[in-house]
Write a structure and sequence with these properties.
five-stranded antiparallel beta sheet, single chain
């Protein structure tokens, strides 16, 4: 019997089905392995973007991480610190991705990302050009959302082949759905409109320096402040100047479900706030 030919429509349908299975597996994995962090968050709005801060546990202490979104060239740049990684040596390095905005009424990856986050909808977002795909998996049962970079080959598995939930995930960030939802709405309202749609894509990521208080990245389009701290000059982010970082740390300290805030981190943030008020 001659072998039946596979049409493009059938092939596309199988790929969509395989992708849906993989996203379901990713969602289930996020539900099983979440540490319960973070519990709360704050945000700081810069000139061209915003930062959402959250606590995470490391070496027995709570520290501050962030998701930063900046308008950059024809789209947005998203930076996550820290992100879970298959490579332990780079697990604490920023995970930086770029997404273009749509033009002429056509939705771009940045618009799709913001929409999925704002509505807690699972789906694939964009190919990275390195054989990887950015996906978002939302689980309303556990209240967690996972933004992940996965091996694109696993999205193209033949129909019926299971996608292992831990295989092919290169990086990811898991946060409560309400955090992702607020970020998605803010992206649509305040960040994406500032992108220069149709302009040339920058060849490098946006420049940044670590905040001398909280250690989170401060990008070129976000204002920073020079203060005279206890041990000399400090260049700090808006959250450490206005007290948002200190308030978040105090909230973390009061939360008995979290480990204690890392002492030197807390001391630097307290010093920055005191210098700002001096």
């Amino acid at each position: 019997m001659p072998k039946k030919r596979t049409t493009n429509q059938q092939r596309a349908r199988r790929q969509r089905n395989a992708g849906a299975k993989y996203i379901r597996a990713l969602r289930e994995e996020a539900s099983r392995t979440s540490t319960g962090l973070p519990q709360s968050f704050g945000d700081a709005t810069g000139e061209h973007g915003l930062t959402i801060a959250f606590p995470y546990g490391f070496d027995g202490y709570a520290r501050l991480g962030c998701v930063d979104v900046r308008a950059y060239g024809p789209g947005i740049q998203m930076s996550v610190l820290p992100a879970e990684s298959i490579d332990a040596a780079t697990g604490a390095a920023p995970w930086v991705t770029s997404y273009s905005v749509g033009t002429n009424g056509v939705q771009g990856p940045a618009d799709r990302l913001a929409g999925l986050l704002a509505t807690s909808t699972s789906g694939d977002i964009a190919r990275t050009g390195e054989g990887h795909t950015i996906v978002y998996a939302a689980d309303p049962v556990t209240g967690l959302g996972a933004l992940a970079e996965v091996d694109s080959a696993l999205l193209l598995l033949p129909e019926g082949t299971p996608a292992p939930p831990t295989e092919g995930i290169l990086r990811r960030m898991r946060l409560p759905l309400e955090v992702w939802e607020e970020l998605g709405r803010a992206m649509s309202a305040t960040v994406i409109p500032r992108a220069e749609a149709g302009s040339a894509q920058p060849g490098t990521v946006m420049g940044h320096h670590p905040c001398d208080a909280c250690e989170r990245p401060v990008f070129d389009s976000c204002p920073s402040t020079v203060l005279m701290g206890r041990d000399g000059l400090m260049v700090v982010c808006p959250s450490c100047v206005d007290g948002s970082s200190l308030a978040l740390c105090r909230g973390m300290s009061a939360d008995r479900t979290l480990p204690p805030v890392e002492p030197t981190l807390l001391a630097r943030i307290e010093g920055a706030r005191a210098a700002a008020l001096a």
